[in-house]
Here is the input.
Amino acid sequence: MTTSALWSVSGTSSKLQIENGGTLNATYAITFSSSTTFQIDDGGTYIHNNNSAIAIFSGTEAFSGNSTVEIRNWVNASTAIPCINGSWGNLKITYNPAAEWNQAGNITSIAGNFIIDNSSGFGFSFTGNAGLTLTINGDLNIISGLLTFSNCGSTTNAFFFNIGGSYIQTGGTFTPNLNTSSTLLINFSGSDKIFSHSAGMLTNDQINWTINSGAAYTLDDNITVASGRNFSLNGSMDCGTKSIGGAGAFTSSSGATLKTANPAGINGSVIVSGIKTFDVGTNYVFNGSSAQVTGTFLPAAVNNFKVDNAAGLTLSNTDLTVNGTLTINNGKFFTLESDKRMTVLGTTIFNSPECLILKSDITRTASFIDHGITGSGTIKIERHLSPNAWHYISSPVSNATAGMFSGDYLMTSDPSTLSGWSGWIVNATTPLEVMRGYACWKPAGNSAFEAFTGNLNTGDQTFVVNNDNGSGTFEGWHLIGNPFSSAIDLSAAIDWGTFENTAYFWNQSDTTPNSYNIEGNYDVYPVFGAWGTHNQYVPATQGFFIHNPSGNTSLTIPASARVHNSTAFLKCARSVTNGLLISVISQINHCIDKISIHFDPNTTQGYDPGYDAYKLWGLSKAPQLFMKIGDLNVTCNSLPFDKKNMMIPLGFKCDLNGQYILMVDSIGTFTSNIAIWLEDLKLMATQDLKLNSSYLFTYDPHDDPMRFILHFDNATFGLTDSKNIPSVQIYSYGNCIYIKSQDGLLQEGKVFVYDLIGKELFYSALSNTSLNKIIPNKKEGYYLVKVITNNGMQFGKVFLK
Here is the structure.
């Protein structure tokens, strides 16, 4: 209906009502008395299309939320729209003022949409110079015209703009036009709404943006945060392939959700150059349609994490902890490259086959730790195997079979056989037992990668010895393996049963330039001693030997033993004192072997399981270092430092003539009062290892294998006053007498050997070195030794044998 004349409505309980579907176009003025109600129902529309009067707003307004008032014409630009009772429904401005149209703060609440669509170059301003809180429960739709908040007075005020719907700008200009020290805070509170700025001008230099808690918005266009301003995400923002940019800052809070379909992930969605702050409680959803990375802006710890990308998502961070739930939706997949580590403290939900992929390279495999898995999906864990080499491996999934090693050679340990090994496993359907280790030979013609696919092992895992421990050389030796998709820490609370608390790792030579070199040795970690030739970490899918002295038993590795670890050798071992690691490197084929010595008051001179470790011989052309505990050959020797001079024979053998280098590590774990010397019995030479920690020697396979002696001398042993330290030490080993300078200086002088009744049996001059070795060639027994130097005379009692 369109008015054709002036209307006047008055009287008690009088009402003008526009019902659903009705439209009143007031081309003539309509006047109301103060007792008249102006009611517009949902779906009803009133069009103010005259400049005669505004008395229609003089009564009582009752505008439903989905009613509409359109201002097409008005009295003049100096007359504000009056305050009404309650909220406007939808308010549409199509009036073209001839000057700035200031509403003087009269409009504060719009229950529906606010639409501005006029061609005027003069602004529609909500207030003068005072602060304002404006709430629009619906959309803000700027089609054309100029929308401002203030006339930019000289007073600093607070301005709040609450939008419950979408922000849609297809033209026109929106500029706050505030005092330079004032700020407009735009709060978005709607659900399933959008931010769209396809055309027109948006001046953002005075705007702080906030997505309220519980709100959910999608970026249809980029949004810009000005310098010194902030974008606060407390609800959900789906950036799609658009971005939040500008020179300002970005902050996400606990409970917020950031969704991105950008191929660059968070780095493509949050591109502000100011400070970016992501709360640990923020949730993330990656829902791209093309291959996507998480982006390095993704923090190291998040709340919930969802993968919804069929083209695949790849983790950019080195480490990621999900404190809540990891969800990989059906048909989507997530990849961790070989150097990545991920922990999920909540539930992991797999919804499709091979939806989580852990990659591998020549040095490492991606690491994943769960705390419970649901869903029908599976994991895929790659394992890089170098060609022409042996690898000890184990399955991190519960349903793997031997068929995954098609083209390789596979067997496992069997202590009941003469060789200690089973026969070749040739049936492709043979299950790979969880926690059992397997030896795999990888031919050069076969792919360097294998992949375990299936249900991830989760929770505590147990290996049961339910077969004969065997007899003879390999009695009690079992090849087991890490059953998890991460490293495990052998120093954790593992239930070893009756197994010795020591792990033996095959170490194929990885320094040889010749890929066909198949030499190698065993590295060892003794749990109690905590000082061996291997650290306490077992990589994912890694097999290793353990020894069971007798009887059936079991070994349980708890899920709590899982750790992420990719550090270099011994860098993360537990801190020790008085521990020595000695390596030998072949100059012929670059193979390596290692031994460790640890002085520990909790041990004995004998073999202590869990502290000491047997010598497992490597291949014949690899160098072999070993020590002796009685008749046992050992790799790790833990013993008490129970006398002033400790001497440890060091054996070496190899099938190849050539040069070798002994290298001593961890000298710094010894205090300054302990001297460490290497004696080469073949060359009758000594070397102070604290001054020079490497020793080059030439070896012949016919050499006596017990070629070296390590000397550990504690100058203050048994003394309470360091001032009483004698100038030289006198001690013996075997049939030799040693005279060592305590201060490391060269010694000139004489040495005399007497029997116990004082008869002189031997005399020699000292050889002007800091360590002299005398061989008097006397029968077994006790002897007195007198040493005369410039510092005076000293006596000692020794035993020769």
